[in-house]
Design goal:
Elements: E1 2-7, E2 13-18, H1 28-33, E3 35-37, E4 47-49, E5 59-62, E6 65-68, E7 78-80, E8 87-95, E9 100-107, E10 123-127, E11 164-171, E12 174-179, E13 182-188, H2 192-199, E14 216-219, E15 226-235
Antiparallel strand pairs: 1-2, 3-15, 4-7, 5-6, 6-15, 7-14, 8-11, 8-15, 9-10, 9-14, 11-12, 12-13
Length: 236
């Protein structure tokens, strides 16, 4: 069951549990608009370990979520079987105390050239802004385009254990990212300004970073507990 909280005009707060079918599902309108589920709520169908092979045992389906258990020594990032070019991606995430993770896109799996997904795919940061170690740089905070664009003003994650709504939209090089309805990054990929941003970032020594116009969606194993659900995408 999914719980929502309502605040009545009188100030009384009540919680209502929604049937499980409203989690990891698409409405009739979403289906009409062309949205696709990337997680069915019960299996890891459509995902594999970065570089090939089955999803590691550290990634589990738990109570309608994709959950990473860092106590299991079998993780690595996971990526979608499909690749996407122009897309609108929406999903929800939550983290445990001090946790760090990320959502990458346009990830390339050429195992000969790239050992790690972050050598190619830009990342939307997933973070506990309060207690995570990597919380000092504004463009490392939750919702940021990691190490490229981000501010304290736009990074407004919910408290640890609460669900956050994330969106990444890429259309013909135009990138817009949102966290809980707040725009956290907006830029144009692959132009000269994009190349300058990369040259001033930690990715400057990675020639493949941010160059691909089609690739996989990636969920990051950063060694911390993280949960994902309601992962849906629309090809544009």
């Amino acid at each position: 069951m999914k719980k929502i909280t309502l605040v009545l005009v009188s100030g009384i707060i009540i919680s209502i549990s929604l049937p499980a079918q409203y989690v990891n599902s698409l409405s009739k309108q979403e289906k009409k608009e062309g949205w696709l589920l990337l997680f069915d709520g019960s299996t890891m169908n459509g995902w594999h370990k970065f570089g090939g092979g089955p999803v590691g045992k550290g990634w589990k389906v738990s109570e309608g979520t994709i959950y990473f258990d860092p106590s299991v020594n079998d993780g690595n990032d996971i990526v979608t079987d499909q690749q996407f070019s122009n897309f609108d991606l929406k999903l929800e995430w939550k983290v445990s105390k001090s946790a760090n993770s990320g959502i990458m896109f346009y990830v390339n799996e050429d195992a000969v050239k790239y050992k790690y997904p972050w050598e190619t795919g830009p990342e939307m940061q997933v973070l506990d802004n309060i207690d995570a170690e990597d919380n000092k740089n504004p463009n490392h905070l939750a919702g940021a385009l990691y190490d490229l664009i981000g501010t304290k003003l736009t990074s407004k994650p919910k408290a640890v254990g609460a669900w956050n709504q994330a969106e990444i939209k890429c259309v013909n090089g135009r990138l817009d990212m949102f966290l809980n309805g707040i725009r956290t990054a907006s830029t144009t990929l692959w132009n000269e300004n994009w190349k300058k941003m990369i040259a001033n970032s930690k990715f400057k020594t990675m020639p493949g970073f941010g160059t691909f116009k089609k690739g996989h969606i990636d969920l990051q194993d950063h060694g911390h507990e993280v949960w994902f659900r309601n992962i849906k995408i629309r090809k544009l």
